[in-house]
Design brief:
This protein is mostly helical. It contains three helices and no strands. It has one domain. The longest helix has 29 residues. It starts with 18 loop residues before the first helix and ends with a helix.
Length: 111
């Protein structure tokens, strides 16, 4: 937590019946959100990607983090797809496999 500048005490997530586990879950959500903030800032600055923050306020913190993560993954995949001149097509796994193949083709073409 200190490594991502989270110095204030963590709060329980309010979703688990065991208080110790709920506090740990709250900490995990908080660290995950801080890490995602860093990733979003990197891709916004380095690649001009936008992370508009249009998160459904009615969602739980866990659902909000999941929504942000899915959007960030899509934006990150777009950076690689643009590099290889590919169009986004398919689900997340399909897109990853196509990028992996494109990367191997690029590597092997230089041998």
């Amino acid at each position: 937590e200190a490594d991502v500048n989270l110095h204030e005490p963590a709060r329980p997530a309010g979703v688990l019946s065991d208080p110790t586990l709920d506090l740990r879950y709250g900490r995990l959500l908080r660290v995950g959100a801080a890490f995602l903030d860093t990733v979003e800032a990197f891709y916004a600055k380095g690649y001009g990607k936008t992370f508009d923050g249009s998160i459904d306020a009615s969602f739980t913190p866990n659902q909000q983090l999941w929504q942000r993560l899915n959007y960030a993954l899509d934006q990150i995949l777009q950076v690689s797809e643009e590099f290889f001149g590919m169009k986004p097509k398919g689900d997340f796994c399909d897109r990853c496999r196509k990028l992996e193949q494109a990367a191997w083709n690029c590597i092997l073409s230089r041998i």
